[in-house]
């Protein structure tokens, strides 16, 4: 299976749909332990990303020139310029770091792991967070570990993406009983327990969209899909 720039674009578009569908849920999660703007901010940001992808589709690059990194860099710069709060800088940095290690026409299982690792490094460095602090890092870190294990076991691209997505989903749920020690939620102390971290949940949505994009493959609805 080829994971190329078209896959990356499908990933982004499916992420936008998933965020839009979960906007109210993410906003409510953030209202309980944060600023209450996570869903709104991400939805606005990914809508802007899709608009830029639509504009770029009008002048498509040759198939042998456009890379996965090109798509991820567009996501990064758009999110950084349109999303407020913590989400814009965190996700923007994640996509930017991922773009730097995916400047290839196609990526294989080890390269998928490298992309996820780079995104994790971006989130961790930007947010100054580590595992166990009830942030999106908990979901990203678990996903990277699972993806790496799948790749080391000889798994396919789908195996690696599935491991990352399913583990991120479980890791997001696992933040519910945790006490936040980083970010705005940490101000609540023990009261932050019992609530799922919104960043961890949105991370699970992003990685779930990556898997869904790979499973679906190109369709006639995709602006850049092959004829």
TrEMBL record:
- Which PROSITE patterns has this protein been placed in? DHAL (PS51480)
What's the EC number here? 2.7.1.121
What superkingdom does the record give?
Bacteria
Q: Which Gene3D superfamilies match?
A: 1.25.40.340
Catalytic class of the enzyme: transferase
> Mind listing the GO molecular function terms for this protein?
phosphoenolpyruvate-glycerone phosphotransferase activity
User: What protein name does the entry list?
Assistant: Dihydroxyacetone kinase subunit DhaL
Q: Which species is listed as the source? A: Promicromonospora alba
Q: Which gene encodes it?
A: dhaL
